[in-house]
Amino acid sequence: xxxxxRSSPSPSSGRIFGRSPxxxxxxxxxxxxxxxxxxxxxxxxxxxxxxxxxxxxxAGVAWLWLNRPEALNALNRLLTGALEEALERVTxxxxxxxxxxxxxxxxxxxxxxxxxxxxxxxxxxxxxxRRHAALMDRFATLPQVTIAxxxxxxxxGGLMLAVAQDLRVASDRARFGLPEVTLGFNPGYxxxxxLDIVAGGHARDLLLxxxxxxxxxxxxxxxxxxxxxxxxxxxxxxALAADIARSPRGGLATTKEIIAxxxxxxxxxxxxxxxxxxxxxxxxxxxxxxxxxxxxx
Length: 297
Prior knowledge:
By secondary structure, the protein is an alpha/beta fold. 43% of the residues lie in helices and 18% in strands. It is built from twelve helices and twelve strands. α1 (77-91) links the parallel β4 (61-66) and β5 (98-103). It is globular and about 65 Å long.
């Protein structure tokens, strides 16, 4: 992973990919805009370093870019490892309240890398599916609100990556599908989360037909929250992220924790979180005072 200020377009190598000797230091609120890149490493058969993940943070919002456009951002082991390291970094970025996940090129993410799947054993495939499942779960435990900005294809594991985010905004040329059943197997992860987000009948439609749907149908299903024209996708997501980032970080993080707890079967956490916020969050108290003051005028 390498880190670079925006004024330094040529970052230097920070450490060996996949070998993190210590947890990344916590990033304070005073940090300027910055960019991180992963690995860099040398992918098999290539002589030059390959950057497969870029993380750009500024003004409370970070953009995480999948950067394998030549492979439609398909998930291989290199990209999976880079995502794992990137999320370690995001977790300790105390100045970031919103994380946007997006893909370079013609796709958000086209799912698992077919070329790699051809070479793995059954045991390796199962282990990779468990690794991907854990990676998707990591997004739910982030203190930041996460948004998928979907342009182009979101298929298979790519659709599950979008579903793993708190919100989804798509361009009207986005395409969604779970083609695994047409290939003779089931999605290796993410089905429970898909059932949480869309009604059971719609989820079964996607899972059992393997068909690809357009963004408009995804919106009707509730799979995405908004659909916009392709030229306005980045600006629309940036505006949404900036709006969310105005809220105190503690309130956002606690609300995410409660959602995750309810999904896991816990109940009654709302009152506990509400009380904790009022006890410990100066920002929450100040917002309440400001709101009450406006009401009195």
